[in-house]
Here is the input.
Amino acid sequence: MNRLLSLLFQQGVLDEQFLQLQQLQDQTSPNFVSEVVTIYFHESEKQLRNLRNILLDREMWDYVKLGIHLNQLMGSSSSIGAKRVRNICAAFRTAVEQNNRSACMRALEVLEHEYCYLKNKLHELFQIEQQRVLGDAVRYPGVVHQQ
Amino acid sequence: MQGHHHLVAVSLSDQQLGTKRKYTSYIPRTNQGKYLALWIIAFGFVAVHVYRCIDAGHQQRIQEGLVSMCDQRARMLQDQFSVCVNHVHALAVLVSTFHYYKNPSVIDQETFAEYTARTAFERPLLSGVAYAQRVMDSQREDFESQHGGTIRTMANKEPSPHRDEYAPVIFSQETVSYLNLVDMMSGEEDRENILRARSTGKAVLTSPFKLLGSHHLGVVLTIPVYKSKLPPNASVRDRIEATVGYLGGAFDVESLVENLLGQLAGNQEIIVKVYDVTNMSDPLIMYGRQAQYGDLTRVRFSPLDFGDPFRKHQMTCRYLHKAPISRTAITTSFLGYVIVFLAGYMFYTGAIHIVQVEDDFDTMQQLKVRAEAADVTKSQFLATVSHEIRTPMNGILGMLALLLDTDLSSTQRDYAQTAQACGRALITLINEVLDRAKIEAGKLELEAVPFGLRSILDDVLSLFSEKSRNKGIELAVFVSDKVPQIVMGDPGRFRQVITNLVGNSVKFTEQGHIFVQVHLAEHSKAVQDAKVDNCMNGRSNSCQSKTLSGREAADDRNSWDKFKHLIADDEFPFQVLTSDGSSQNVNLMVSVEDTGIGIPLHAQKLIFMPFMQADSSTSRHYGGTGIGLSISKCLVELMGGQISFSSRPQIGSTFSFTANFKRCEKNVVSDPKRSLYDDLPTAFKGLKATVVDTKPIRAAVTKYHLKRLGVLVEVVTSIRTAVSVLGSGQPDMILVEKDVWLSGDDLSSIRAFGSVLKSPKMILLATNITGDEFDKAKAAGFSDTLIMKPLRASMVAACLQQVFGTGKKAEQGKVMANGSVYLRGLLCGKKILVVDDNQVNRRVAAGALKKFGAEVECADRGKAALDLLQIPHGFDACFMDIQMPEMDGFEATRRIRLMERQANEQQTNGSIDGSCDTRTTSEWHLPILAMTADVIHATFEECQKSGMDGYVSKPFQEENLYQAVAKFFESKPTTNS
Here is the structure.
């Protein structure tokens, strides 16, 4: 798990904020991270869908809405520490500000790709963690692992 | 990137050179040789001209000399000649008077010869005179018979042939007696002369010819003698008729002129010639050799008038030798020329030298610019590289931290910890290098924000407390009361300098103490000046035991003698402050004194050079790079101060520096940033304490920390004194130094005394303590608590809280300086509303706040928040996102404030009515904190405008949150308890 995490850090997919998030998780909220991340995925998919719709809508090209959705996505990404997604969002936003439609499309594609990557990796991470918690529980029965 | 920089720098330098080259040069840069040649030639002409001028004067003088000499000779000759002529005239008159007018004649040959011989001195120019009678052919017979001889010719002394008339000599001077009866008219010259003389009636001269009887040239003077007196206007015929004879004399011109010249000075120098120039085309020489010799260039012709209008004579003078060339002229011009030539050569070499120096200078300039550019490039390179290294290093450190969290075997853990420690060391080093490079590149700028000096010093102390405790070093800080609570400056950099100095001290000190002092620079200086001689007199021994730990320190200035004076004035704390309170600057003097190994004398000069350590073994023993002090120096200089040190090997070092800060305005202090103040509880205000300590400085430090907590302190030197004081003052606590206690004072007396009254709390102060000692201390009566040094106000406060039980239950027994624990205490049980449209953020914020024990409620939009916040509500704080759809954070806050105002107004009205309820005794004012991703100043201002109380940056960070929250809950800690 740590190896995966370090890989993600090295690639710049995640940053310290994710560690902070992990530190928030304790006995009182044992599934805090996965809970937050699930919310994040849910929200983000909605945002991405909205973004794609707006971009595909040839007649109406609503910058304001585009900006709002992007901001949302950016805010939540930085909250969970998804650094690369956040950076791409920033690039996307400048493209929107410049009114550059093709750049927007490109950015959206990159964003979706990056998002999928993040999602896969985080899923992987949680699976490993779950297994480990189970393993811990087997090894030290009765002791709840603390991160 | 680097290369580009370099190029820019170089092109810049070229430009600079281009402009530099434009300085005015008065020296020709090329063709100096030509200029020299021109100079030499020009002055050659000048020299020749000068020579000519001087020589012309010289020549003229020579000429004038010649002229005057020649004229003088001519005049003399003429005078003597005319004298002779006059005398001959007189003879003529004599002959006519006594030969013709007397009858019979009274003159005969004898008389004449006698007379002329005796008057010969009168006629020096004449070789002799003779009188010839005019004899007509008809009278020849008579004459010959009368004189008893025949008339002879001059040529061969033969009897003369017949002629019209004759002029036989009848009287003659002895010298020319051979002329007797010689017919003077037989000679061509004489005949002509005679004819001319009798027709003009004047003395006439012949042209020069060889005289009879001598080889000399001569002229013959002939004067007519008339038988009757002639009227002045007599005609030629009358004269001829009246002529009776002729008086003649021969001038031996040659010998005469010789004689004459012999009498004159300068005879040798000139050649004199006398010419008869009656016939101009063929001058006849009368005197001098015909050959041309002597100086031919200079000739003077002086006319001679011998009284014969028919004949003209002139004198020619020449120098015998050529006039010598004028030495002065030549020397003057030559020397002048040499001087000018040398001067020209000097200018020439000078010009060449100057040009060379200028070229060298240009080269140097170029090299300098290049070197500077290289230096800047180096700094930039360092900055960039360090920055680039930092990023992956963060990853490495993060991963190591994660690794340490996992299950590791002890060996693995050891390895990982070592790696982490190394990584930390590396990142510190990189940061230092980066700092240094930034300073060199001039990119480091100091902040000017208000900060609390004392809390920073406490922080630094806490950093090193562990190390110092392990080594058993006494670490203490003391800040003078005159130093303001809050100053404006750069807290980070100030902390860096202090950390560095203290870190060095800790590193190099094995026993003794490290003492940090802060005073006002002016004050400290004044005291130091006043006390300097005292300290000099009482040097080593008296000062020795008066430092913090009793060990000798390098700099006596910090000994008690001086310290006493520094704090003596503290008894009147604000007098000095108010007097110079008008000035905006606070000049602080900070000194860090240790009793470490000191700095070797030879290394003291190098100590502030980057990467210089005292010697190479230092880094082997103690580690470190030696860059810290140089950075500190730069930083101190940036802060407008100076750093200096004094050190004695094996005794210790004292580093002291001054720094300039701005006094903080009072209205700035009332800013939201109130966390600047010491976060010290005020619960101990008014308590009394007795400190038992034998060392005055240490006691002063203890007193300083207690004073900050508002505790009144009394210092005594032994427990016995403390006991004796007990009765009167009744302190709430007694703090005893460990070594005082160990030295054997008995505590039981206090116990005994204390049992009667409410017993004071006993507190032991110690640097380090063993388990045995601890047990013993407990047994001896220090059951209350033990305060481990170094002392920090917050830590002392925590301990006292524990002792007096005034602290919160949850925190008992803990030191509560740690932020998160403290935060937990602050937020525990608080009800907080989080407003954010982003579900993820909301969840994270809520999670973070919940972790610190807060009760969190969420709202996903501004409207919902407004609904929840309808008065009355039970929230203690609200975190508000700024960017929200429909209603953003600013708008929501404005509305909430509006509601509160209305409620407050109603409440005031209500309180006037007298129906006020206890829950709302205070005005409604909900602390609203903005949550924002970009913390820009402008945003912060807008937050304030719309009525928010502060902001936290997203994503939440612990200390950030702590700072923001602490402001609100600490100031009213009892609101909710």
Q: What stands out?
A: Chain A touches chain B at residues 2, 5-6, 9-10, 16-17, 19-21, 24-26, 28-29, 32, 35-36, 39-40, 42-43, 68, 71-72, 74-76, 78-81, 147 (CB under 8 Å). The longest helix of chain A spans residues 101-139. Residues 22 and 33 of chain A are 6 Å apart (CA to CA). The two ends of chain A are 13 Å apart (CA to CA).
